[in-house]
Amino acid sequence: MLHTTFRGNDVSFKTDEDGNAVQLFVGKRKEDGNIKGDRYARILKKDKDGKVIKDHWDLKGKAS
Hints:
By secondary structure, the chain is mainly beta. It contains no helices and 5 strands.
Protein backbone atom coordinates (compact mmCIF):
# COMPACT_ATOMS: atom_id res chain seq x y z
CA MET A 1 0.00 0.00 0.00
CA LEU A 2 1.17 3.48 -0.85
CA HIS A 3 -0.27 6.42 1.13
CA THR A 4 -0.32 10.08 0.09
CA THR A 5 -2.56 13.15 -0.07
CA PHE A 6 -3.96 14.94 -3.12
CA ARG A 7 -6.03 18.14 -3.18
CA GLY A 8 -6.98 17.79 0.49
CA ASN A 9 -7.93 14.10 0.25
CA ASP A 10 -6.06 11.14 1.64
CA VAL A 11 -5.22 8.56 -1.03
CA SER A 12 -4.04 4.94 -0.74
CA PHE A 13 -3.01 2.68 -3.62
CA LYS A 14 -2.77 -1.08 -3.48
CA THR A 15 -0.35 -2.44 -6.09
CA ASP A 16 0.14 -5.79 -7.79
CA GLU A 17 3.42 -7.72 -8.04
CA ASP A 18 4.51 -5.56 -11.01
CA GLY A 19 3.94 -2.29 -9.11
CA ASN A 20 0.78 -1.34 -11.02
CA ALA A 21 -1.95 0.32 -8.95
CA VAL A 22 -4.97 -2.03 -8.81
CA GLN A 23 -7.07 -0.52 -5.99
CA LEU A 24 -7.51 3.10 -5.00
CA PHE A 25 -9.07 4.56 -1.86
CA VAL A 26 -9.87 8.31 -1.79
CA GLY A 27 -11.33 10.24 1.15
CA LYS A 28 -10.37 11.15 4.70
CA ARG A 29 -8.13 8.89 6.76
CA LYS A 30 -9.62 7.90 10.14
CA GLU A 31 -7.62 7.45 13.33
CA ASP A 32 -7.37 3.68 12.75
CA GLY A 33 -5.66 4.30 9.38
CA ASN A 34 -8.56 3.31 7.14
CA ILE A 35 -9.95 5.75 4.58
CA LYS A 36 -13.61 6.73 4.64
CA GLY A 37 -14.62 7.73 1.11
CA ASP A 38 -14.68 5.99 -2.27
CA ARG A 39 -13.08 2.78 -3.49
CA TYR A 40 -11.97 2.20 -7.09
CA ALA A 41 -10.69 -0.93 -8.84
CA ARG A 42 -8.51 -0.90 -11.92
CA ILE A 43 -9.24 -3.12 -14.91
CA LEU A 44 -5.88 -3.89 -16.47
CA LYS A 45 -5.94 -6.44 -19.30
CA LYS A 46 -2.84 -7.53 -21.19
CA ASP A 47 -2.32 -9.62 -24.29
CA LYS A 48 -0.11 -12.72 -24.38
CA ASP A 49 2.97 -10.53 -24.97
CA GLY A 50 2.28 -8.41 -21.89
CA LYS A 51 1.13 -5.33 -23.82
CA VAL A 52 -1.73 -3.45 -22.13
CA ILE A 53 -4.90 -3.63 -24.24
CA LYS A 54 -7.43 -2.35 -21.68
CA ASP A 55 -6.87 -0.01 -18.74
CA HIS A 56 -9.57 1.87 -16.82
CA TRP A 57 -10.83 2.52 -13.28
CA ASP A 58 -14.28 1.47 -11.97
CA LEU A 59 -15.99 3.04 -8.97
CA LYS A 60 -16.81 0.15 -6.63
CA GLY A 61 -18.64 2.08 -3.91
CA LYS A 62 -18.00 3.49 -0.49
CA ALA A 63 -14.93 2.64 1.56
CA SER A 64 -15.18 2.69 5.33
